[in-house]
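Supplementary Note 2. Why include the ligand at all?

Several targets in our set were suspected to adopt different conformations when bound, so apo predictions alone were not considered sufficient. For every target with a known small-molecule partner we therefore ran a joint prediction. The input for magnesium ion is given below.
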Amino acid sequence: MSRIELSKVNKYYDREHILKDVDLVIEQGDFMTLLGPSGCGKTTTLRVISGLENPQSGLVTIDGVAVADPDKGKFAPPSKRNLNLVFQSYALWPHMTVFENVAFGLTVKKEAKSEIREKVAGALEKMQIGEYAERYPSELSGGQQQRVAIARAIVSQPKILLLDEPLSNLDAKLRVDMRAELKRLHKDLNTTIIYVTHDQVEALTLSSKIAVYFEGVLTQCNTPEEIYNNPSTLRVAEFIGNPKINFLKGSLKSLSGDKLGVECDFGALEFGGVKGRDGGVARLFEREGAGCGVTLAIRPEDILVSQKEMEGFFSCPVTSLLPAGSETLLELALGDNQLMAKEIGQRRYEVGQTVWIGLKQNRMNVYESAQGKLVLRAIED
Ligand SMILES: Nc1ncnc2c1ncn2[C@@H]1O[C@H](COP(=O)(O)OP(=O)(O)OP(=O)(O)O)[C@@H](O)[C@H]1O
Ligand SMILES: [Mg+2]
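The joint prediction is reproduced in C-alpha cell form.
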C-alpha cells in the first residue's frame, strides 16, 4: 500500500506563499501528474512529499501515517518515507560509472553482489542503456544521463517514485519513446508515481490523474479525459490542449425546463439536457438572471467546417491556414471572434475563402465569465 494525502498544505519561502491550502490524494498505483506553468509550485510539492522541505501548516500522510505534521512539530526524514526522487537536475556521481551509480543504493544496503548485478542489469535494460554500464556520466549525453537517473530510482523498487521532469533533456523522438517506456514501467512495477511536467501532452498521455496548478493553488485534479473534456475553470481550459480551446462571449437568455438559451454576437444558441449536465448554470440563472455574461468554450476539433452552405452553420472567412502534416488548422473570423478549427488530414482551403462552420454544441462548455467557473458541462461524443 502507498497512498499519499496532502491536506490543507501551506508552504512559504520567507514571506512568499508558495503552496496555498493544497488538498491532494494520490491513491496506490496512481500515475499522478502535477501540471502547471513554471514557478507554480510543482517541484515544491514533490519536495514537501519527500521530506526535503517542511510545510508550515497542513498535514502530509503516507498510508495513513503522518510524515509531516507541523502542528505537532513532527516531520519524518526523507529516508524514512520509502520513496525515491529523480530531480530535474539528476546529479549523478561523476566519479562512478553508470553501473556503480545505479548500484549505489543496493551496495549501501549490502545486498549480495550477484543480486545487485542482476537488478542493475535489469534496470539498465528497461531504460535501454545497458551498453553504457561502464561509462562515466561525463561520457554520456544529457538524455542518457537522465535515463541513468531513472534507472537508479527504479532499481530499488521503491513504493513511490517521484519524477521531476525526467524527460526534459531528451530530443523529441526519444521523449515519445520514453513516454511509452515510463507507461510500461508504471504498469510493470505497480508503483505509485508522482510525475512533474509542464508539457501537457505528456501529462495527457501518461497519467491516470492530473493535478493542475496555478500559482500554488491546485485548481483541478481529475482524470486526463475529464480535465480535457470539462476543465473546471477558463484558465485550465486555456492551459490544456494544443491548439488552444476557443472562447466565445455570450450571455444567458432563458432557462425553461431542460433548455438553456444563450445569446452570442453571432446568434442564439440553445443547449438541451441541462439538468443532466448541470454544473451550476440553473443556480447561476436564478441568481443573476438573463444577461449574465458567460463564455462558451469549444475545442478546435469540435468545429465542423464545410465548403458549402449548411443549415445551422455560420458563414465566416478563413483568415489563416496552418497545415501540420497529419492535420489542417484553420483560423476563422466569426464576428469579432477569432476561432481555430482542426481537421484531420490535409485539406485544401484558401485564405479569404468563405466556409460554413458548425459548432458541436454538445461538446461545448459554458463558463460564468466573471469567476471563470464551469457552469455547464459538455456531453460525451
Ligand atoms: N529554496 C527556495 N527559496 C525561495 N523560493 C523558492 C525556493 N524554491 C522555490 N522557490 C520559489 O517557489 C516558487 C515555486 O517553485 P517550484 O520550484 O515549486 O516551481 P515549479 O512549478 O517546479 O516550476 P518549474 O516548472 O519552473 O520547475 C517559485 O516562485 C520559486 O521561485
Ligand atoms: Mg520544477
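The longest strand covers residues 16-26. The pocket of magnesium ion (ligand 2) is lined by residues 42-43, 88, 164 (CB under 6 Å). Comparable summaries for the other entries are listed in the accompanying table.
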